[in-house]
Design goal:
2 copies of one chain form a homodimer. Chain A is built from 11 helices and 20 strands. The first copy, chain A, is of the alpha/beta class. In chain A, the strands form 5 sheets. Chain A has an 8-stranded mixed beta sheet with strand order 3-6-2-1-9-11-12-10, with helices on both faces. In chain A, a hairpin with a 2-residue loop joins strand 19 and strand 20. In chain A, helix 6 runs antiparallel to helix 7 and helix 10 crosses helix 11. In chain A, 49% of the residues are buried. Chains A and B meet through helix 1, helix 2, helix 3 and strand 3 of A and helix 1, helix 2, helix 3 and strand 3 of B.
C-alpha cells in the first residue's frame, strides 16, 4: 500500500512529539507500506516568523515572506527525517518544490499548477521515505512559494493524487469529523464518513479539521481523505465521494460565532437595491455570508440585513454606511452578538422536512430565528449569540445525531 | 561598480543589527553600485539548530542536517531582503543553489564544483539586489548541501568571481587583519594589505578573520578580498596577489594555544621511525603540526616530539602509545601546556636574518624554545604556555610591527 501521512503543528509541538510521530511512521513503513510524510511547522513557529517579518517591514514583501516562512516546515521536516532514520527508516527531507509541487507566482497564496511525482517515485523505489515540507511549492522561475496558511493538507492531497496513493491520512489532535463541536455538544459523535460536499460546508462553517482548498482538491482528484488523531488509535473519518447510504437527513451541525450582522434600515424598496449593497462589498473583497431583504413598516421602504465575517466588520460597516447615504436610507444597525447554526447533510436537498425540523427545534426552545440561508446540502439560521450553544445542542438532538430519540 | 558584501553572524545578532546592515547596503546601492549580499545565520542560530539535531539523532544524517542548517541562513537572508526593501532597495532572498552555487554531494562539507551566474545576472539587470544564503549550495541531484562551518566567506568569494565583481567585502566585528591579536598585543596595528599566502598562514595559525578554504578559492580565482568592520568606518585590509612592496620581513605574528605536544622517548634511532609515527596519525585523519627528532642520551636511541591540535589529543595519544609499544620505546610524554608563536611574511623566504631575529628576541626574554618549524613564509616556535603572551609581544616588537624601534 502507498500512504501519504500529514502531521499538523499540534502533532509536532516539540522533540518528544516529533519522536512519537516518527515511531508511528516507522511502524507503518515496517509493515511494508510505502509512506510519504508531509509536515507542518512545529507548534507556533509560523506565528513567530510572521512576528519577526512584521517587525522588519510589516509583511509587505510576499516573496521574501514566503522564503522566510518556508524555514518553519523545513526544520520540522529535517528533524522528522532524522528521527525516522534513527528509528531505522531511511528518510530524506524535501522542500515542496523538490517534491515536485509546482505553483504559480502568487506569493503567500500560490495555487498548485502541477505535481511532478518523479522525485518521490525515485526515492520510494530506493526504499527512502520522503518527508515533505507542507504548504509550499516552487514558482515557474524557481522561487519558493507558500500555499497560504493551513495549506499542508493541500500538499498531502496533491501528493497522494500524484503518486496514486491508496490512502491520504490527515493527522491532527482530534479523532475525526464530529456531528458537532464536542466542546459545545458533549454527546457529539465522530462520523465514520462523509462526502466532500458535506465536508466543504462544514469547513466553511468553522469546522477546523480540513482546509477548504484541500477538500476541493480532494473532490476534484478523487482522493479519499482519512482524518485521524495523532494521539489515539481509531479509524478516523473518511471524506470521500458521496455514497448511496449517505442519504441520511443531516450528517452534522456546525456553529459559527465570528459573524456580524449589518442592517441597512429604510432604503427605497426597488429592484437592485440589495444587489448594489452586495456589489460594493464584493468589490472590496468582502464575502457576504447571508443576505435578507424585508419590507419596512413604511410601505415604500425596505430593510436589508447581511452578515460578514468579524474580521471584515470595520471595512464592511464603512462601505455600508456610504451605500446607505447614496440610497437615502434611514439608519445602519450593526450587531456582533449573533451566531449561525447550520445543519449539513446530503439529505437536505431531497427532504423538505429538514427545514421544518430545524425551525421546530428552535421554536420549542424559544430561540428566535433572525435570518435563514440555504444551500443544496445546508440550512443555516442566525440566532442571538447568547442562544448559540443551546441552539446547537437542540438541533443536534432534533436530528438524532446523538443517537437518542 | 559591482560589489559582493558578506556579513557574518556577529553582524546579524538581532533585528536592530540586520536593520543597520540593510541601511549600509542600501547606501551602497543608492551610490549606484550593483550589490550582491551574502549572509550567515543570525548570531547563535546554527549552534541552536545543531543542538536540536543532536537531541534527535546525534548528527548522523548529514543530508538532513544540511537541510536543517540551511534554514538559519534562509531566515537571515529573508529578513535582510525585507529590511532592504523597506529602506527602498528592492531585494530578493535566494538559497545558495538558487544563486547558482553547485557542489558535490559531500553533505556537511561540500565542495563547490561550479557557479552559474545566470540567476544573479538576471536579478542585477532588473535592478534587484540578491541576498544569498551563505555556506550552502545544491548537489547534482538537487539536494541542499552546506560547505561546512564558516563557509559563508567562500560563498561570497565564489560569487564575486562568477559575476566578476570589482570588490568582495567580508564584514565582521573586527576592522581587518592585524599584525597580532590586539587582545594580546595592545599595540598591534591593522594591516592595509597582505598576500593570499600570508593570510593562509595566519588563518591556519588561529587568526579568525577569513576561513582557509575561502582564501584558497580567492587565490585561485584572483578575487581581491577586503576584510572590514561592520561597526566602524575604515578601509579594512586587502587580501590580494603578492605585491612587490610586500617584501617586508614579517607582516604579522600569530599565537596558537590549542596544541598538545606528544613525545615518544627512547625509540630506536633508525631511518623511518619518525615517518612511521606520523603515518599512523595521518591514517587516523589527524594533522601533525610540527615534528622534531633528536638523539637521546643513549646513543642508539632517539626522541620524537610532535604537536597536534587539542581536539585530536586523546586519539593521538592512543595511537602514539601503540606506536611506542611496537617500536619498543621507553616512555610517552604528553604536554598540553604549550603554545606556538609564528612570524608570517613574504620576506621570510628571502631573508636569513628572520629566524635569527626571532630566536634572539625570545632568548633576550629568557623564553625557552622547545621546537621550531618553518615554511616558505613562516617561522614557528613552540614555547611554554605560560610564556605565550609575553613571547608574542616580544616577537611583535622585534619585527617592529608596532612601529617602534
Amino acid at each position: 500500500m502507498r500512504v501519504v501521512q500529514k502531521y499538523g503543528g499540534s502533532s509536532l509541538k516539540n522533540m518528544e512529539y516529533i519522536d512519537a510521530v516518527a515511531k508511528r511512521v516507522h511502524q507503518t513503513a515496517e509493515a511494508g507500506h510505502a509512506v510519504v510524510v508531509v509536515v507542518s511547522a512545529m507548534g507556533d513557529t509560523t506565528d513567530e516568523l510572521v512576528d519577526r517579518a512584521q517587525q522588519v517591514d510589516g509583511l509587505k514583501t510576499a516573496r521574501n515572506l514566503d522564503f522566510l516562512l518556508a524555514t518553519g516546515e523545513m526544520q520540522s521536516a529535517a528533524l522528522m527525517a532524522m528521527a525516522l532514520t534513527r528509528h531505522g527508516t531511511r528518510a530524506f527531507a524535501l522542500m515542496g518544490g523538490q517534491a515536485g509541487i509546482r505553483t504559480d507566482s502568487q506569493f503567500g497564496q500560490a495555487r498548485i499548477t502541477g505535481v511532478d511525482a518523479e522525485a518521490l517515485e525515485r526515492l520510494l523505489a530506493q526504499g527512502v521515505t520522503p518527508v515533505v515540507t507542507g504548504f509550499q511549492g516552487i514558482s515557474p522561475d524557481g522561487a519558493v512559494t507558500t500555499l497560504g496558511r493551513g495549506g499542508s493538507d493541500l500538499t498531502a492531497i496533491a501528493l497522494a493524487s500524484a503518486i496514486q496513493a491508496d490512502s491520504c491520512e490527515i493527522y491532527s489532535d482530534v479523532p475525526g469529523v464530529f456531528t458537532a463541536d464536542p466542546r459545545i455538544v458533549p454527546n457529539a459523535k465522530a462520523l465514520a464518513s462523509l462526502s466532500y460536499d458535506e465536508m466543504l460546508e462544514l469547513a466553511s462553517q468553522g469546522a477546523q479539521v480540513l482546509q477548504t482548498q484541500a477538500v476541493l482538491y480532494a473532490r476534484q482528484s478523487g482522493v479519499t481523505v482519512n482524518a485521524r488523531s495523532t494521539f489515539e488509535e481509531g479509524p478516523g473519518t473518511r471524506i470521500e465521494t458521496e455514497q448511496a447510504e449517505f442519504n441520511t437527513l443531516v450528517t452534522a451541525v456546525a456553529l459559527d460565532t465570528h459573524l456580524t450582522k449589518i442592517g441597512l434600515v429604510g432604503v427605497p424598496d426597488r429592484p437592485g437595491v440589495a444587489a448594489l449593497a452586495c456589489e460594493k462589498l464584493a468589490q472590496a473583497g468582502i464575502n457576504i455570508d447571508l443576505v435578507f431583504q424585508a419590507l419596512s413598516h413604511d410601505d415604500a421602504r425596505a430593510d436589508i440585513a447581511l452578515t460578514v465575517a468579524d474580521r471584515d466588520r470595520d471595512r464592511a460597516v464603512r462601505i455600508c454606511q456610504q451605500t446607505l447615504g447614496e440610497l437615502g436610507g434611514s439608519a445602519l444597525v450593526v450587531d456582533a452578538d449573533i451566531a449561525k447554526v447550520s445543519a449539513v447533510g446530503a439529505g437536505v436537498r431531497n427532504h423538505v422536512g429538514v427545514a421544518a425540523t430545524l425551525f421546530r427545534a428552535l421554536a420549542d426552545a424559544h430561540i428566535n430565528i433572525q435570518m435563514i440561508g440555504t444551500s443544496e446540502i445546508k440550512i443555516s439560521c442566525i440566532v442571538a449569540r447568547s442562544d448559540a450553544e443551546r441552539a446547537l445542542n437542540q438541533v443536534h438532538h432534533a436530528f438524532r445525531l446523538d443517537g437518542k430519540d
